[in-house]
Amino acid sequence: DAKTTQPPSMDCAEGRAANLPCNHSTISGNEYVYWYRQIHSQGPQYIIHGLKNNETNEMASLIITEDRKSSTLILPHATLRDTAVYYCIVRGNSGGSNYKLTFGKGTLLTVNP
Amino acid sequence: NAGVMQNPRHLVRRRGQEARLRCSPMKGHSHVYWYRQLPEEGLKFMVYLQKENIIDESGMPKERFSAEFPKEGPSILRIQQVVRGDSAAYFCASSPLAGSGTDTQYFGPGTRLTVL
Which B residues 34-73 touch A at CB under 8 Å? Predict the structure, then answer.
């Protein structure tokens, strides 16, 4: 699976959009970009995933660049409860051990009042 | 629809005792994954199971650790003769499909094991 690079920490004001970047320059054509978050002492929570097109759900939006070498997770109106470590994970589509999620250090997002 | 359930949430064991961690996957999910998170570290894959089958246990220590997912009942992660280094948070995840890259894994709240 491709390696991802994320900033170690970010701050965001409550009510503003939080934009979390992720670089995955070695991603291959059949690999998906997944985002999870882990609020302190809780289990990882699935947020969103995508392949090529931008995706949106009730939690967030995922913007993937045209060359697929980077992506941005957008929380449109951050709240204090969004303070968490956010993980960007690249997963293969088939074959091998693509079911193994590889968690890096992620980005600690702190939402400030 | 209930999420992934794990119990106990907290488990304290003395060195040399056995620890049994249970995981009930989401309804309709037949694929279970166990991950371990050591203090101040990221989650690491341990084992992938389907009903009555261990598919991949490459991330599990060769000794003292075992996992099962019987036809009936929860998945069990068993740690024999625990040592202080086993103290960690153990998370279970489940997915509905055949373990491909596109099926989403949903995590439980974890079991925090403390070895005295």
Answer: 35, 42-45, 48, 56, 58-59
